[in-house]
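Researcher: Quick one. four chains, 474 residues in total.
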Amino acid sequence: MSENQRLLIVEDDIHLGFLLMEFLESEKFNVKLCRDGQSGLMSFKKESFDLCILDVMLPQTDGFCLARQIRKEDKEVPFLFLTARSMKEDKLQGFAVGAEDYITKPFDEEELLCRIQVILRRQAQQQIPEEKPTSFDLGRYHFDYNKQELCIEGHSRRLTEKENEVLRLLCLKQNQILKRDEAVEKIYGRHDYFLGRSFDVFISRLRKMLRQDKSIRIENVFKVGFILHVQNPQQGH
Amino acid sequence: MSENQRLLIVEDDIHLGFLLMEFLESEKFNVKLCRDGQSGLMSFKKESFDLCILDVMLPQTDGFCLARQIRKEDKEVPFLFLTARSMKEDKLQGFAVGAEDYITKPFDEEELLCRIQVILRRQAQQQIPEEKPTSFDLGRYHFDYNKQELCIEGHSRRLTEKENEVLRLLCLKQNQILKRDEAVEKIYGRHDYFLGRSFDVFISRLRKMLRQDKSIRIENVFKVGFILHVQNPQQGH
DNA sequence: GCCACTTGTTAACGAGCTGTTAAAGAGATA
DNA sequence: TATCTCTTTAACAGCTCGTTAACAAGTGGC
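Model:
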């Protein structure tokens, strides 16, 4: 259920941060941990998250301030505070800046999990009118991201989850370079040698699937990434 | 903002109940107060509310049980627990039956107000209930959701409640992916491992019922959901 | 041309997901 | 209380797909 849900945790207590990350990763979340407001905001701008978990007391920018900046970037993303500051005024301020929840330390991991799930559950119900296209014409092929389907000449093939994700990234950047690191980061939320190789495997599989139209090809850019070449770039809704 | 929002409070402590009601009415909510699970459920069935605030320890039916009954009546309405029982197990059970929040006494009125507003805010964002079709042609079959009936060649079969719900969701998304999580959420109003498996059992039963027309089939999309394939998509009112 | 490194491709393992049936449980009815 | 109906839980078989490994081939610096 929480598969692939991306969480941003901003927590300056290294020990607690790691505990939290480990716990949430064991619950199949994809977690990014930052130690201060600055890097939290940077990460937020670069990547995209389903929920942010913010400490209030942070070096430099405090959590409330960070929350405001995140809101400036994204009007929808839910966030909650997880903090030792249990004073009523802090709580009220937390809700005032738009938090979905305000949890005080010490907290129970499982309760936190429940609260996260409540937030994501409600979020999921609001089908976000995706502003990015989800349907692409690739030469004689047609790729529908929502249906997870690649068609050619009336013949359609169902893609696996990851194949679908990789092809989508390629399509969004068609005829431009899709950087390895960027792609791996978006798909897995983290980066290591094996994930990079796994990504290569998907590239290989997609090439095989797309072989029927010679005008479509995935070219490697040594040490940088890949380009999906498409002759008549067009895309549906 | 809270203008005209209707709250159902089920609280057996008369004193606390009145305090709560007065406070929330002063915040422009429209409040109905009940003293026990029985009358709470009665009120819920008769009237309609935007949010329910439930005590856990109630005479006769306890709060968890009441919540389950409310869920049976309405899969959408949000509810929260407001209770002296602060044990972890109780909290987890509260969330497990589908609560949006679990607040332990003593609590701060203003914090409660914030939490109520968070829930109603999420709720408000939700889609306008549009008219959805209730009658579907599925190849040689005909499915009528209101009659809870699946017919083929003059022969009709009555569906159970859940079979009916699952088939409806599939039909509404025919030839598109019906996501597991979304479906389970809509059918049960909450989500856990077993509900997912129960959903699978209904898929299996529907497959069996639909076997007489080969052009109709329910395909699994690994880890994502199911697609009801229909050849000539048509649907009645 | 030689070397270190990157990329291409295939195959296979195994965690975890799904299909199905049956038993247990819950709720309604009488 | 006994009975019936429907849903949930359990159990098990079978399957899928992402990862990893292994090796071949390509790249570019020197």
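The CA atoms of residues 10 and 39 of chain A lie 9 Å apart.
Researcher: Thanks, that's what I needed.
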